[in-house]
Amino acid sequence: MAAPIHADEHQLLLEEGAQPAGGAGRKVRGLVAAGALLGLAAAGTAASFAGAFSAQHPGVATSSAAQRGLVAEFEDTGIFGNLSAFLEFPRGIGSDGLSKATLEGMFDGVMEKTGASSNLTKSEAAAYKGRFVDAVLNSAGDSAMETAQTAIMEEKPVMPEKMAAAINAADLGYTVKPVATTVAAAKVLLGLRVPRDLKLEQPARTRAVFPETFDAREAWPRCAGVIGRVYNQGHCGSCWAFSALQALDSALCIADPRFNESDSSLSRGFTASCVYDRDGCQGGYPPDAWEYVQDTGSIPSTACVPYFAEGAGSEHFQKNGHSPECPSTCATGSGLSWSSSLYRPLNAGLGGAEYSSFRYMKKLLFERGPVSMGMPASFLSSYKSGVWSAGCGTQPNHAVTAIGYSGDDYVVVMNSWGAEWGDKGTFKGDPCVISVFWKMGKIDMDAKGYVFASA
């Protein structure tokens, strides 16, 4: 994994000659909130939990009753800490002698030592225990102790009911809903793989003036359907492909009015299958998609190569899929020929530079359209409404697409988890969640036009 990166928004804006909104006292809404609370691996005591919470919420008024209540609600529990450290095998029993009853006793011991069960409803605790026991019993050939240590951490629910209620009462600027999905299952959909040698570029100083609010769907109304089209990546860690192609689709439409039909869409399935030789469901990097198109010269439409992963917006957290072989013909029954379904977005792969400055993102949005971006999203599945700020400053693991902004308050983002998720497939993100974004090459049209590779 790459070293953690994040956007130091105030510093970047100051370097570019701008002032952060509201001055130094600007309230940043709960910089880590759910992400930090659930991700505090070492938070096994009240002191460490409260200290970590305060350190990761520098912009939140720690004196507020709501904030104190949120910390107090969870300071004595180990549900968000390293439960594996409290897991013990009964003496005299080897891995071959483990039974359901023995594993249930081990689980109950962890709950008792950490107080973790106090933050779970009875049904949540029972389901958690069942998943833990099944994971260990079904791990033939693996070390039972190692499997148990992994399972006690990864079979936790992402957002327990009590946690959701406490966050919603704490006025963090956003609301969440309970999510029974396990931590392990949620990870499957977070497919951003950031290079170890990532180096963020520093944009040139600019005095450019941008509108206070901006929405690419309104700026290019004939492309609103393309820019705002909601996709579902299904049971596959292909968020990187959806993010890259949401930006590329938008750029094509903005460049040429022919790419604005109801079926104007580049194939996410082709991208996930071909860029990494069938490994696209295991994650990827958006610029790699643009570079692949640049190197090969073309990419088919979704009508030619439909997306292969299925699943409603809430279901895709439950299982994973694998991409099929890279196709060279259109799907049977599509009625389309391969040569007439290939698009040629010239120069798209000549970009790929990485940035994190919110001001520079605004410039790209205003001048070019939607921007592919990476963010921390380990608990984004629980988002319901408001301006999401959980996880700021932590490792980015999910790729999405920025399509607008409102002052320095938030960026409007398209996700790829279906229309049933969030605000009809979109959400508002605090600028602090912008860990990195990518500048795609500017689409160029030659004398023949870019649309069909066979033209």
From TrEMBL:
Tell me, what is an example of a GO biological process annotation in this record?
proteolysis
The record's SMART domains line, in alphabetical order, gives: Pept_C1
Q: Which GO terms describe its molecular function?
A: cysteine-type peptidase activity
Q: Which InterPro entries match?
A: Papain-like_cys_pep_sf, Pept_cys_AS, Peptidase_C1A, Peptidase_C1A_C
Q: Which family does it belong to?
A: Belongs to the peptidase C1 family.
Name the PANTHER family for this protein.
CYSTEINE PROTEASE FAMILY C1-RELATED
Q: What is this protein called?
A: Peptidase C1A papain C-terminal domain-containing protein
Q: Give the source lineage, highest ranks first.
A: Eukaryota, Sar, Alveolata, Dinophyceae, Peridiniales
